[in-house]
Amino acid sequence: MVEEGKEIIESIQAGPVRDAALIGGAQKVEHYEIAAYGTLAALAKQLGYKDALKLLLETLAEEKATDEKLTRLAEQGGNQRAAREQKAA
Ligand SMILES: [Fe+2]
To answer: What is the pTM of this model?
Structure first.
């Protein structure tokens, strides 16, 4: 995913299209983290690791909040500006 981000930066000119691509890439990372922490939280719950479960659920909530912020960022114009720029090109 880091390599993908580097490729976006190297291959897309700075502007709304690159921004939209980078937001999408950041959301891929968040979704990966959500899957990982969700799985670990489920395992901690099954094993009765209460302290670990608490921390994992807190981290999971943080990852979800970051994903939602990125979605709002994209919806608040980033993707629309990117679409307009692509149409104009
Ligand atoms: Fe994250």
So the answer is: 0.83
Mean local confidence (pLDDT), 59-80: 91
Distance 33 CA to ligand 1 centre (A): 6
Average pLDDT, stretch 1-10? 94
Ligand 1 centroid to Cα of residue 58, in Å, is 12
In the chain the domains, ranked by start, together with CATH numbers, are 2-88 (1.20.1260.10)
Residues 6+ apart with CB under 8 A from 23: 70, 73, 74, 78, 79
Separation of 2 CA from ligand 1 center, angstroms? 13
CA of 89 to the centre of ligand 1 (A): 33
